[in-house]
Specification:
Length: 305
């Protein structure tokens, strides 16, 4: 038992150290993003570009990613209940934390889940998988892309999905996925991609900081806000689990509950599902009242703020 505790602590320390280096780089990139947002406004006024609005984010460039095979989208949305039950959430090392007394985050009259990340980011690459799996229990994705993290960053070329250009439909909630940059280097940063709306940028700036996240996670991406009830900053598992795989191989691995990929992705998806159920009033009931989801709620971090 003591050895398991030590192993979990070591895993948390490794992820925290990796995220710290990435957080410093992300803070520099945020400054560039803020400057870029001002430039974007000028460009719009001048009528020099056309911006396409998809899922709440302004799209400012083309992503170096392909379209996810529809069969894989279907597979991610049809994982058997038995797999969620078998995997549980025992392998999850970090999880979103509750926040207190904040106004509800909503869109179109529904509770809203906000994801802000970037295609270069390996922790974002890892985290999109459980986020997509969890959200697919409440609705349907269309036009998900494929991408990988930057080749020159830690955990290089981590295979992933991309929310750029995608849409999400659900009777229970709203979702906005923002990918701020591509994985292609441009100068000292990466090529810009999606620009958060002013509202989403304000949410990021307020809640991706103490006291809503731990000091060592402040400023990290991916940033995930679940209805202003739960905040996630960083990854819930190590991207190393996905190293050397293709998107198709990752989806195929999810068929085996004993796979390390399944334990990481499905375990994290159970925790995200538990958090999302808190903002949908436990709907749909067949998902939110399952034993695996009920147990996963115990993984959610203690309230902050």
């Amino acid at each position: 038992m003591a050895r398991r505790v030590e192993q979990k602590a070591a895993a948390r320390e490794r992820i925290a150290a990796q995220q710290a280096a990435q957080r410093r780089a992300e803070q520099r990139r945020r400054l560039l993003l803020a400057v870029g947002a001002v430039v974007l406004v000028v460009v719009i006024v001048g009528g020099l570009i056309t911006i396409r609005l998809v899922g709440g984010g302004k799209k400012t460039a083309q992503a170096p990613s392909g379209a996810l095979d529809p069969a894989l989208v279907t597979a991610l949305g049809s994982i058997p209940d038995s797999t969620f039950s078998t995997v549980g959430s025992s392998g999850v090392t970090t999880a979103p934390s509750a926040i207190n007394n904040q106004p509800a985050l909503t869109a179109n009259g529904k509770p809203k889940v906000l994801y802000i990340g970037a295609e270069y980011c390996p922790f974002c690459a890892a985290e999109r998988w459980p986020v997509v799996v969890a959200l697919s229990r409440f609705g349907t994705f269309k036009d998900l892309g494929t991408t990988h993290s930057a080749s020159a960053d830690v955990h290089p070329n981590t295979p992933s999905l991309s929310f750029h250009g995608s849409t999400y439909t659900s009777q229970y909630l709203s979702f906005t996925g923002v990918e701020t940059t591509t994985n292609e280097v441009e100068g000292n940063s990466y090529k810009p991609l999606d620009t958060p709306t002013a509202e989403d940028q304000a949410t990021l700036q307020k809640y991706d900081n103490v006291p809503y996240v731990a000091k060592d996670s402040a400023g990290s991406i991916p940033f995930i806000d679940i209805g202003n009830k739960f905040i996630g900053s960083g990854a819930t598992y190590s991207p190393d689990v996905l190293a050397g795989k293709t998107q198709a191989q990752i989806v195929d691995a999810l068929k085996d509950p004993s796979s390390p990929i399944t334990k990481a992705v499905i375990g994290s998806a159970n925790v995200y599902t538990a958090a999302i159920c808190k903002i949908t009033n436990n709907q749909p009931s067949n998902v939110c009242t399952s034993a695996a989801v009920t147990a996963a709620a115990g993984k959610l971090g203690a309230a902050k703020g």
